[in-house]
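It is worth pausing here to work through a concrete case rather than discussing structure prediction in the abstract. The textbook approach is simple: state the sequence, then state the predicted structure, then interpret. We follow exactly that order.
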Amino acid sequence: MKQLQPPLTGEVITQLKAGDEVQITGLIYSARDMAHKRMCEEIKAGVKLPFDIRGAIIYFMGPTPERPGKIIGSAGPTTSSRMDPFSPVLLAAGLKAMLGKGYRNQQVREALKKYKAVHLSTIGGAGAFLSRFIKSSRVIGYVDLGIEAIRELMVESFPAIVAYDSEGNSVYKR
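Step two, the predicted structure:
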């Protein structure tokens, strides 16, 4: 089990191989389709994003409402391919890892190689379980998007697997 602590460096990324099991501890950011679209528009317009994207991990997730006394509701991954139109722009801006579930298209896989980044997958259908690894959650951008707002999440030992590495290898080809 490899330990990841963002922000990630190119050196850390190149050591990750498709199929590696990882645990993430530190700050990551959640964002879904509409937040991705807005981030790309802001990057193209030269507007500063709500967080430093360089070395960051974005978790494709929009949580359910938290129950009383809980930090966050169910926090399972969104289908990664929904972010495919936006991912190359974010990778070019310095994003080093994405976390979701399922396949990525050829354009994203090529961008992962070009910008030395990885795509991580986690357990779909297990949002209540995954929420246990989130120690804090706060909205930091695009509050008007509701559950699709960008959240800063402090995670501890969050489980994932390297689905696509920076060399073009895929766990799905095994």
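Step three, interpretation. The chain has a mean pLDDT of 96. The chain has one domain: 2-173.
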